[in-house]
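To: structure desk
From: M.T.
Subject: fold request, one chain
Message: Could you run this one when you get a chance? Sequence is below, nothing fancy, just the single chain.
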Amino acid sequence: MADDAAKKIQKDAPGLASNLRAWGESPLPPTVLATLITAQHARPFQALPMLFPVALMGATYMNLNDAKVDAAGFSAAWAGLYALLASRRKQGIRNKFGPRGILRGGTIIFSLAQVAAGGWVYGTGRGLGFFGGK
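Reply: Done. C-alpha cells follow.
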C-alpha cells in the first residue's frame, strides 16, 4: 500500500525533464525575452541587438502555428547567440548593480534558461518540418 502511494506521488510530481519541456514548448518565454532585449536596446536605438526581438517573435509565431519543436530550437539558438554577444560586453563593477546592469544580467540568465529548455525540447523532440525537413 505504501509503495503504491509512493509510485503515485513520484508519477504525478513534475521532474526536471517535464519542466524543461513545458518551458521550451511555451510561446511565452521567447516573447518575454524579446521584451527584455527591446527594453535595453530601444533607447538609444541599436540596430544589431534589435534583430534578436524580431527573430524571437518569429519563434513565437512558429510555436503558435504548432511547430513547437522547431520553434524551441530556433528560439534556443537565437537566445544563445544573444547571451554570447551580451556577455562579451565589458561593464564596470559600479554599473553591474544599477538598474540597467540588473536588467542586463537578468536577460542573460533568462536567455540561458531558454537555451537549456529549447535545446532540451529540440534535442528530444521530433519537428513537424517547419523548415522543410521531417
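Reply (cont.): Residues 23-124 form one domain. Let me know if you need anything else for the meeting.
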